[in-house]
Sequence to fold (281 residues):
Amino acid sequence: MQIARHIYSTHIEEDPATFGAMHPGGTQIYFVGDPSERMVVVDSGEPYRSWARQILAYHAELGRPRISAILITHGHGDHIGGLDRLQESFDCEVRCHPRLEPRLTHQLGPGVVRGLAEQETVDTGGDVALRAWHTPGHEDDHISYHLPDDGAVFSGDTILGNSSSSVRNLKQYMESLETLARLNPGILCPGHGQVIRNGAARIAWYARHRNEREGQVLAALAGGAGTVDEIVAAVYPRDLADNLRGAAARNVRTHLQKLVEEGRATESSAAYDLAADGGGR
Ligand SMILES: [Zn+2]
Fold:
């Protein structure tokens, strides 16, 4: 379906019984540019034949525009899995974060993959261009793509349509949210879930949510909680479902890692505590 002047998407439903549980709202593969001229594709989906078939059928529905490049948001399997089949069909370049370039070159062969420098632009056809912004946090090799002409950002897994994102490095992630906020997008086109029409507000909500959680973790440390389990018990509801407890613990660990990186908490072998000088804050 058409999302904005230069943006089209095919939405891939997922079986909630399998990995659909990991991707609430399914997966979006975007075509950007002018269907009567040429376009680029954002991400390639899982390595399943049925997914590639759906993406190629949508390309046919758009009138088979020439595809000049597949742009990758990050190197997780659900974003690069379809590359083999799609790159061969489109006979196009693949652009990605420089950190991901060696791995994809190994997969696709020499001369196909080119890294994208920070703020490098990619011509999409239709007289518009995307600009690459390095947005680490969900993953080291994450890029978000800004299409100023449509006021849109392709946010990969940094911002999702139907859920909050998993974060590997929270300090980098919060900086990446600031980068996206400065772009002030009207539309966010996430890797999974529904397109977001109040983009800037959603970015602010994501940042606020993480800051509130950080405040709760700091309060738990100040109140004497010292282990991840104790902090989870202090911060999360007492009746938290067992299957969410692991995710809660992971989330608390990313907050602690950020506070340690910032010198606001210290870590000993098994426990965390507030830094003696409060990290200067
Ligand atoms: Zn993903």
In short: The chain is about 35% helix and 25% strand.
